[in-house]
């Protein structure tokens, strides 16, 4: 459907289709990991063929992120007395922390530091701390670094 109809849509609808494509990459591995990655791969091929270069690059980036997420999720394991949580679980847990606690959690170990640097967590912290002033969602590029924006403000 993406290949057949994208070029014929008005610009606002093209934007919505692009946003939905990125959303599909984010949720497909959660549905059925084996099938999700295969479906995301097919969607990626269609997106690369149809979308403009910048949007295709964003789609490729989101696809890669979803594949990494899938791999992280499958790495959770129990080792004797300790349990190593996957990055997705850590990120979900960290989403309930305030800014100071998030920074402190990032100092615990490499795995926690990696999870605490997640851009979506800092976006949440930015909006909680500053509100929507200064940065509009529509104006922010796809790879906008919310942690840097938070630190600068």
From TrEMBL:
Alphabetized InterPro entries for the sequence: At5g52880_ARM, F-box-like_dom_sf, F-box_dom
Record-annotated F-box domain positions: 79-125
Top-rank lineage group of the source organism: Eukaryota
Alphabetized SUPFAM superfamilies for the sequence: F-box domain
This protein's name: F-box protein
Source organism: Carex littledalei
């Amino acid at each position: 459907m993406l290949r057949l109809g994208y070029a014929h849509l008005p610009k606002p609808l093209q934007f919505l289709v692009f946003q939905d494509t990125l959303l599909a990459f984010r949720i497909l591995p959660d549905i059925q990991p084996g099938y999700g990655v295969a479906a995301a791969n097919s969607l990626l091929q269609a997106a690369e063929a149809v979308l403009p270069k910048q949007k295709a690059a964003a789609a490729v980036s989101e696809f890669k992120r979803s594949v990494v997420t899938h791999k992280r999720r499958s790495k959770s394991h129990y080792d004797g007395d300790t349990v190593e949580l996957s990055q997705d679980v850590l990120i979900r847990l960290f989403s309930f922390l305030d800014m100071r606690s998030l920074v402190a959690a990032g100092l615990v170990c490499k795995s926690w530091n990696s999870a605490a640097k997640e851009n979506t967590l800092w976006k949440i912290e930015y909006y909680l701390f500053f509100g929507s002033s200064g940065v509009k969602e529509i104006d922010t590029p796809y790879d906008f670094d919310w942690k840097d924006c938070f630190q600068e403000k």
